[in-house]
Amino acid sequence: MTSAAETCAPDIAAGPGAVAVGSATHDADRRHVWHPFAQMQEYLALPPLAIASGRGGWLTDSEGREYLDGNASVWTNVHGHNDPDLNAALQRQLAHVAHSTMLGLTHAPGAELAAELAGLAPPGLGRVFFSDNGAGAVEVALKMSFQFWQLTGRPEKTGVIGLAGAYHGDTFGTMAAGDSGFFHARFRPWCFPAAHFPAPLCREWGAQVRAADSTASLAALRALLEEKAGQTACVILEPSVQGAAGMRLQPPGFVRAVAALCREHGVHLILDEVFVAFGRLGPMLVCADEGVTPDFLCFAKGLTGGYLPLAATLAREEIFAAFLGPYESGRAFFHGHTFTGNPLAAAVALENIRKLRPLIADGTLRSRIACFGRLLDATFAAHPRVRELRQRGFAAALDLTPSRDSAENFPVAARTGLQVCLRARAHGLLLRPLGDSLLLVPPLCLDEAELAELVHRTARALDDVLPN
After folding, report:
1. Over the stretch 148-188, which tens digit does the pLDDT of each residue have?
2. In what order do the strands lie in the sheet with 66-69?
3. Which is nearest to 358 in space by CA: 442, 273, 284, 434?
4. Which of 52, 60, 324, 403 is most buried (most C-beta within 10 Å)?
């Protein structure tokens, strides 16, 4: 596969004018598009990059330059871009119907996918409510929990307890349940109050566990529940890895312990597997691997292999039963999305899961993950500009530092993490930073040679911006 390492000669981090592109796409983008999570003044001052096509783990821009997708197109891509099997599933469904509502109707792909997800989930999670994105899936779970307690004679149970540093989305319910600080602080006056308990200590460097302790975290949750369980509807948790918090890890057994505390105190457990499910960390589902059955389970991102927006919230059958009654009882769950259970998205999700099963079962994915960990450890374990490396599955974070011997950080205005990611484009690699952490979240389809390229090109970009 041809890379952009030699062909992309301009210094991408050089600022305005580094690349002269006058295409209609770039002109329309600069005049009209408001990009997510972007300071648009900064974005408009940078050289434009428009993606035109993709195949496997690679993307090609409008100038014909190729880039390894080290971001899995915001953590969604599983089998690669332009996958022939996923393409065929879409085309087969497109020959029938592109969209038909699930408001009062059903269709085969949606019903089959609901059954597939219920079969993947731990026993008891038999009801599936479709939506469009991860925040929507979590919002549905929160509202279902609140309404369940109203319908069962406990309307005072309205509180939410989340984990410190949590990110569940950008709708108001998910902002309230989360604890994303900088992202959401200005909207706090419009959010309902929520409590948060500290995350457990878990520091791993490659395969080496340097520290792991859930004691203080679980004690804090127990104290909150002992005080507030009577007024608490649910506890919400991103299991195993908090992605947007910087790939913060949890020790094995932590999720089981949280689930036990929830059962003991009679509150719902919502597991937000929007990021971690569908092989991202190795297993198909984290909760099934941990032996935990939550009350609600949320999916999105990798559900369709990175092809189309689709999300799902799974609920226990006994929770579903509480919503049943005559229409005039007002017990129905009045929530919905126009494209709920879209047939095209459901069809590609079914094919995504079909392709993923053997990769997990035969050890292929496990082998790729082990290779990824070895490469990261060999390249960055002694790197003077990397303070900490966290990796679990196909998710990793490199915390950048001026010096490993001090706690000093780069000035925020220096945008060091961004500069490294911009420089990576010159080496044929697309990454996205979180502050001054580099997040490496590749598609699951990368082979060992491509993983080596991912790590090597990251190191080259880092050394270009922060020479030793």
Report:
1. 999 999 999 999 999 999 999 999 999 999 999 888 999 99
2. 51-55, 58-61, 66-69, 429-430
3. 284
4. 60
